[in-house]
Every structure is written in C-alpha cells, then in structure tokens.
Amino acid sequence: MRILHLSLTNFRNYARLEMDLPPGVVLLEGGNAQGKTNLLEAIYYLSRTRSPRTSVDRELVHWLALEEELPFARLSARIEKGNEASQIELSLAQGWNADAVAWRRQARVNGVAKRAQDAVGVLSVVLFLPEDIELVAGPPHLRRHYLDDTIGQIDPRYRHELGRYDKVLTQRNYLLKALRGRANGSEELAFWDQRLSEHGAYVTVRRQEVLAQLDQIVQRIHPALAGETEHLRLQYCASVHWQPSPGIAYQTVLPLEQDTSAETGVRPLLQDVTTVFAAQLREVRSRDVEQGMSTVGPHRDDVRFLVDGVDMNTFGSRGQQRTIALSIKLAELEWVTQEKSDPPVLLLDDVFSELDASRRSLVMQAIAPVQQVVVTTNDALRCDPQFVAQATLWRVCAGRLERITPSAAGAS
After folding, report:
1. pTM of this structure
2. Mean pLDDT of 336-365
3. Which residues contact 141 (CB under 8 A, 6 or more apart)?
4. How far apart are CA 335 and CA 234, in angstroms?
5. Which has the closest alpha carbon to 239: 198, 293, 188, 200?
6. CB 149 within 8 A of CB 125
7. What domains sit in the chain, N to C, each tagged with a CATH number?
C-alpha cells in the first residue's frame, strides 16, 4: 500500500499542500516546528480519523482559518492497494451544538459519505513518534489505547464491541454512583453486567490474541535491536481471571479459537469468557457500588514488557524503553502486513537521532520491504549516506515543501 497524492487544506501549519509521494523512502528534512511531524499526523489522521497528538479538533485547524467566518480543514489522499486506486477524504467544519461551538467531522471514501469509524483502516499506517516511549514507561491507559488502535484498524467488529463496551461502562458507572446508600438495584445492575460482559469479553479475548501474535514477532525483532543481549516478552494482564493461579492476579489466556492440544487442554471459548466475566462482576458488585466505579473489565487491564524476566515498565532504562517501543512498532508493521497481505505505510518521526550506527542499520533493514516509508529528520547528514541516496528528499520550512537533492541535504 502507498499514498499516490496527499492534499491538505488548513491543517495545522499547512494552509495548502499538494504533494505526489513516490514509492520507497520519502525523507523530510527541516528544523523544529516547521511541519515535519504535522505531515505525519495528517497521514495518520486519514488512517484513523483522529489525531495521535490531540483530542481537540480545533487544534488541527490552521490558525488563520480560525479567523474566517466558517473555518474548516480538509485532508485527502489517493492511495494504491495492489493494482487498485482509491480516495479517502476527511473534513472538519465548525458548527454549533446547543449554542456552543462544535466541530463536525465528515468522511468520504471514493466519493461516498461514510461514518468516520467506517473509514478507519482504508489507509493502513504504522506510526512511530519519539513520545512512544510512554507506551512502556507511561500509565496503563496508553498501552490499552495502543492495542485498541492497532486492532481497530484491522477488525471492524473490535471497533464496534469496544464502542458498545465504553457506552455500557458509562451507564453502569452512573448507576453505581446512584446506588450508593440504597438497598436495592441488583436487577438494574444485572442487566448492565450482562451487557458489559458480552461486549467486554470480545475486547479482552481479541487483545490477548493479538498481543500473543505480536509477542511471537517481537521475539525475533528485539534481540537484533538490543545487540542480541536482551530477550523481550509481552504479557497481557487481564482483570478478568480465567482459572487464575494462587496468588496471581493476572495472566489469563483467552484465545478466540479452541485449542485441544494435549499440552494445553481445551481453552475457553468466547462464551466461556463472557460467563466468567459476568460472574466476577456479580462477585465485586458490592465493592463497585461502594466505590462508585467498575473495578473489573478490559478498561482496567494492562500490558507488561519483560526483558529476561525483568519488568521494563518499572525497571527499564530510558534507552531500553525506547528500543522496546521501536521493537513493538516494527512488530506491528509485520503483523499488519500479515493480516492485510499488504505492507502499510510506515511513518517514522525522528527515529534515527538516538540510535547508534548498528541499530540504524537494523531499522533500515526492517523497513526495506515496505512499499512506502516517510521519515523525518532535523539533519539528513546524520542518516546513512546509502539510505539518503535511495530516498526522495524534501525540505520542510514553515508549512512548505521543497524538493532537494542529496547534495543539498543538511544545508541551511
């Protein structure tokens, strides 16, 4: 998969951009705050219909456009999958909702209006940002969000089940707060418990399944990036316990498919997980009422990154955590390629600045099979000369792009 043409209007610091993107590596060089990351953000936005950097749509609109009577932003891309071309377009327009300013998001695929969530994954993208180190070092919700984002671009049912789960969770939490000090309410909770377990079981099971696949891939990728001195494993920590070992609060294995091998026995099916989830909700019901929140479910789950058995979330150095984050993204790249039988567009923001020469070489080897890679850098001269020679170079300055030659790279 690759982008043939990218068009931006009033997005971030791009008042207007029309850009043909060639296959292979596209290298964007420029100083800080010139628009390199904004360009990657725009491509990601077309893939996920949301930004990886903000949840406030107004921040995506060019500041001069905000002064207009009807401010708007528009992004579109013509993409190629195999031998087929398609078009995706997203627009943001300011409107009013109950006398308050609201931003309306619209999506079109091949000219046909779509709900934003139905446009997710039309353009497949894997994005690495420097702040992705927080996937390892940051709070659990970032790791849950990463899994939701990764799975959601592949699995429409997952997006639907997760959306329903979030809505039911909100309703259940509202009811739990209302039931404080009341003697009844079990029947109302039973209804929401059943709905929560039905939607939440699929989310938990799918996350577990995908993380197990990423774990298999990352075991091959990480040792090379870490100089063959570290071995990384991924663990999904589920708050819904399936036959937990004594004293172990997490680590349930919840695959979608039934496994009848002699070593593992019969593993639970999706319905079994739903049943277990509902039972645990009943067990913690009084505690949930007391606390006014739901304490069991995929919204409380986490992911652990273990290097030679040591928890890198807590004990990893910044260098180790950055390498792990990059390993995860390269594993995601391979996983999406397997799932779609087509490599996604790879976006790398300043990936080479903190890597030594051997690790930069390994990253370049990993991205070689990808049809299209967009890489940003402050100085192309820091990149491998052979890598630069094979890339298409653009200089980014104040929201404008200029095609340059390798000999001009790094010049001020």
Report:
1. 0.89
2. 86
3. none
4. 15
5. 200
6. no
7. 1-124+344-412 (3.40.50.300), 131-341 (1.20.1050.90)
